């Protein structure tokens, strides 16, 4: 079956699935909820059960701390909801969102512009450094909005609110939205600034995924980009999206040669906590089940063999298994963890927000196509070993990406478990040579190394006031 036919069926299946899900939600909300609420025998029981369920929901509890001053006030809120609304998550979050919106509006200074950072998931929250605090110090209203409750340090910062379940799209007081993961396409009033989370031009899924990303970038006003390679790739993706979808040609997009804030923070951490310890990290990208069409690249299906080979052939090294945050709770990751948990040299890293503790103590990273490969190399100046179990297919499909073309500028590519062991030994034996090579490559590509956050803060007025910057690229 040709690639075009596969993509046709994949695209059609996605459209059908989205349609069915939307109809199920609509039927549940419009028909099932009112019907159950009208049953005099069942309704009181359902009401009590759903009220208890909402009291224990992580997102509801997080919002309640911001919008209610007491538990009594929270109970009065749920008592005021109709039974059919209690049965619908959309209705509950919509009602809470309206209260939260007014609470936020009341604390904003109307004389100042309002900036919001949006973290749709638990991943990539460190990518904006201390931008929120520094913009607040410059006199802006600044909010942090989250779409997933992770109980991490970012949720303990000042002025953090819940923006998930479509709540963010109702916040019409936002002037500038910084998007790290996720999007808020209905905030037409806000200037949207997108921070790609990869330092290189990672393929980011199949053609459908890349098409969706291109549309997203074409809808934004600014892209804060880490490297020359990413700037070129994003510019081409936006132009291609406009050719295919003329509606995205209605406004300019500004490409900012800004740098990679996460790399700068990594370098600071590494300078302070670098340890010369014998540790090898295995960090695969998202599994093929979640990436659709990326089976020739992703390596998690080989994770068991990879970890076993590392434990067997490198007895003096600790082996850290760091799955992608989106795979943390999958059956495959759970199986691998349970198989090796009793081995004292096996470490399972499930920290979604930060990886630097183990990166700073490691000598080698093994991955497949994860964007963390170049971030790791440019932070630690240690080599990377890419496991490519179907290199021929990988090159055929993704050879145009500099990510794949440049792999051997920071390490080696192994196609079998045996090659992986061989190359790992050779890379560990020549670390000084690789350090010099990687540093030279890094310095030739990345914008504003060590100063990316300063660059953003110093030039933010050009975004807030929509002024043209002489060094930025407008397409």
From TrEMBL:
Superkingdom, natural source: Bacteria
A family per Pfam: Glyphos_transf
Molecular-function GO terms, alphabetical: CDP-glycerol glycerophosphotransferase activity
Record-level GO cellular component terms: membrane
Protein name: CDP-glycerol--glycerophosphate glycerophosphotransferase
UniProt source species: Candidatus Wildermuthbacteria bacterium RIFCSPHIGHO2_01_FULL_48_27b
């Amino acid at each position: 079956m040709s690639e075009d036919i596969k993509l046709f069926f994949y695209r059609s299946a996605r459209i059908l699935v989205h349609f069915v899900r939307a109809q199920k939600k609509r039927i549940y909300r419009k028909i099932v909820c009112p019907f159950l609420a009208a049953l005099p025998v069942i309704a009181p029981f359902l009401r009590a059960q759903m009220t208890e369920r909402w009291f224990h929901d992580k997102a509801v509890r997080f919002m309640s701390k911001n919008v209610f001053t007491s538990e009594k006030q929270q109970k009065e809120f749920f008592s005021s909801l109709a039974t059919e609304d209690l049965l619908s998550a959309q209705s509950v979050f919509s009602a809470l969102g309206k209260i939260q919106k007014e609470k936020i509006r009341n604390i904003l200074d109307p004389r100042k512009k309002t900036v919001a950072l949006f973290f749709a998931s638990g991943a990539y929250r460190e990518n904006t450094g201390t931008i929120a605090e520094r913009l607040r110090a410059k006199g802006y209203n600044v909010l942090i909005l989250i779409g997933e409750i992770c109980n991490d340090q970012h949720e303990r910062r000042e002025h953090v609110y819940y923006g998930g379940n479509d709540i963010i799209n109702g916040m019409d007081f936002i002037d500038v939205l910084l998007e790290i993961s996720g999007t808020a396409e209905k905030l037409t009033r806000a200037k949207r600034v997108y921070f790609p989370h990869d330092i290189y031009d990672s393929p980011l899924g199949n053609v459908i995924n890349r098409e969706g990303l291109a549309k997203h970038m074409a809808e934004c006003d600014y892209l804060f980009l880490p490297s020359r390679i990413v700037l070129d790739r994003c510019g081409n993706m936006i132009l291609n999206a406009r050719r295919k979808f003329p509606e995205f040609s209605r406004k300019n997009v500004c490409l900012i040669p800004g740098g990679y804030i996460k790399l700068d923070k990594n370098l600071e951490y590494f300078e302070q906590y670098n340890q010369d310890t014998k540790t090898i990290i295995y960090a695969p990208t998202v599994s093929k089940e979640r990436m659709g069409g990326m089976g020739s690249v992703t390596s998690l299906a080989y994770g068991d063999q990879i970890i076993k080979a590392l434990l067997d052939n490198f007895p003096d090294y600790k082996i850290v298994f760091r799955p992608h945050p989106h795979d943390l709770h999958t059956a495959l990751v759970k199986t691998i963890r349970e198989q090796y948990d009793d081995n004292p040299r096996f470490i399972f890293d499930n920290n979604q927000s930060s990886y630097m503790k183990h990166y700073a103590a490691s000598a080698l990273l093994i991955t497949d196509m994860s964007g963390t490969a170049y971030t790791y190399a440019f932070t630690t100046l240690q080599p990377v070993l890419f496991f490519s179990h179907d290199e021929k297919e990988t090159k055929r499909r993704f050879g145009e990406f500099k990510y794949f073309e440049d792999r051997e500028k920071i390490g080696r590519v192994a196609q079998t478990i045996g090659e992986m062991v061989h190359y790992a030994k050779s890379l560990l034996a020549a670390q000084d040579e690789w350090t010099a090579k990687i540093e030279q490559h890094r310095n030739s590509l990345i914008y504003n190394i060590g100063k990316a956050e300063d660059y953003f803060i110093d030039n933010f007025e050009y975004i807030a006031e929509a002024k043209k910057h002489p060094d930025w690229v407008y397409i």
